């Protein structure tokens, strides 16, 4: 019999991403259980080498390099059950958790449930990054286990959990590290995000101003809007819809339009202009690209016919300095014609040059690019030189005299 262990925290999150990255149907993380005591099985003693081998056999290779600089996080029910081997960090859960707060991953390996992972990560992440994690857990995509920022994204996976389940576990916990932060950030988490970029945009729209968000009120993601055309009926889904209004946003990064294939086919045809095969390849690539663009136009037109005003967010709106602020001003103008939400604080915050600079770095820090790392470093340096929270500093500078 192999070792019986329960992963927690960062290790549990990595394991969950491994499972979702593999697109496993009837995913084993849906099998709930209570926390078990670790067991050395037939070996009778613990060994880092054997533990690593078991993780590899369980298709959890990203966790197999167990060492002090890259510890494996383990949950145990009592102090006396701690694993005393190099590279293992123990987290004791003797009380404070509801029943079945853990899940089975098979091969005698267990892990914190998606809901418990959300709580455990609260003390390790900034509020914005923590909201993004919630969007991922409640969404239809999964980040890469080894490289969550810039690694490959897995799409069209079942949500690991939902906001209702997150709230139920949080309300059932007591005395667990991270619970206070989890309660705050959960208010910004929304179900059904389909991509990391969509989740980033949604996070910034709902985050409080003192967390460098826009605070534009509650939103819904990918809500089906029934449309009619001719003898058929279908449902279109705006990426983001401001709750209780007809105002929405669609992200058109053209990632679904394979322009690279067009460029490659055009280059090949230029080298061999007389070959019919290269001409057909170019025609096919152009046809596919045009089909993707037309699909977006048809979606926007059909939503407009149903009274949905879906503004377009382009990739340039995210990467060009100040562009997203300008877009948000347009969104606020549209919302003010039909929403009872008070946007005066949001408008005031958009007038502050200091906030604009910090907010731009916050946006860039959340994007899945290497530039995001540099933006994160700039924000960390900025606030490391100042005492207190972001909110404290901005109040001190008078940015929030009215907002506070």
Helix-strand layout with pairing:
Blueprint (H helix, E strand, L loop, with lengths): L4 E3 L1 H13 L10 E2 L14 H10 L14 E5 L11 E5 L9 E3 L4 E4 L1 H7 L6 H11 L3 E2 L11 E2 L7 H10 L6 H8 L9 H11 L12 E3 L3 E5 L2 E5 L3 E3 L4 E6 L6 H13 L4 H30 L3 E6 H5 L3 H13 L8 H7 L2 H14 L3 H15 L5 H7 L8
Parallel strand pairs: 1-6, 3-4, 13-14
Antiparallel strand pairs: 2-5, 5-6, 7-8, 9-12, 10-11, 12-13
Helix pairs in contact: 1-3, 3-5, 4-6, 4-7, 5-6, 8-9, 13-14
Question: Describe it for me?
Answer:
- The longest helix is centred in the last third of the chain and has 30 residues, at 276-305.
- The protein is an alpha/beta fold.
- The model has no long low-confidence stretch (mean pLDDT 85).
- The strands form five sheets. A four-stranded mixed sheet has the order 1-6-5-2.
- It is built from 15 helices and 14 strands.
- It has two domains: 5-186, no CATH class; 196-396, no CATH class.
- It starts with a strand and ends in an 8-residue tail after the last helix.
- Helix 8 runs antiparallel to helix 9.
Summary keywords:
404 residues; alpha/beta; 2 domains; 4-stranded mixed beta sheet
